[in-house]
Amino acid sequence: MATRSLEEEVKVLKKQVGRDISIGSLSIASQLSSLGLIDEYRFVIHPVIVGQGPRLFSDHPLKTPVRLDLIDTKTFSSGNIAHHYKTRREN
Predict the structure, then answer these.
(1) Are the C-beta atoms of 42 and 81 separated by less than 8 Å?
(2) How far apart are CA 44 and CA 81, in angstroms?
(3) Whole-prediction pTM
């Protein structure tokens, strides 16, 4: 159970040796992105057109753009396409 703020909890987890931290919640992902705590993004595109749906940053809009560098793309037999990006850290 987390006892710290989301920001503090993720910073502690990132310092630990081990596996990647995966986030499946749009709300948590957009909050962590706003805090600059996401190193890589993995987006899966489903070839379906719908009139509306959840948007990544609708509840927590970014104040500045996040630049991404494409690492890999994979196309599945279903037609889904997975994109793997690394966050570009600009100094």
Answers:
(1) no
(2) 6
(3) 0.80
Exposed (0-12), middle (13-18) or buried (19+): which is 30, by Cβ within 10 Å? Answer: buried
Look up tokens 């509840």; give the residue: 59
Whose tokens are 């995966």? That residue is 22
- From first to last of the 91 residues of the chain, give the pLDDT tens digit: 778 999 999 999 999 998 888 988 888 988 999 899 999 999 999 999 888 888 878 888 888 889 999 999 999 999 999 999 999 977 6
Compute the distance between CA of residue 44 and CA of residue 80 in angstroms, rounded to an integer.
Answer: 7
67, 87 in Cβ contact below 8 A?
yes
Look at strands 68-75 and 81-87 and give their pairing: antiparallel
Cα distances (Å, whole numbers) of residue 91 to 24, 57, 88: 29, 24, 10
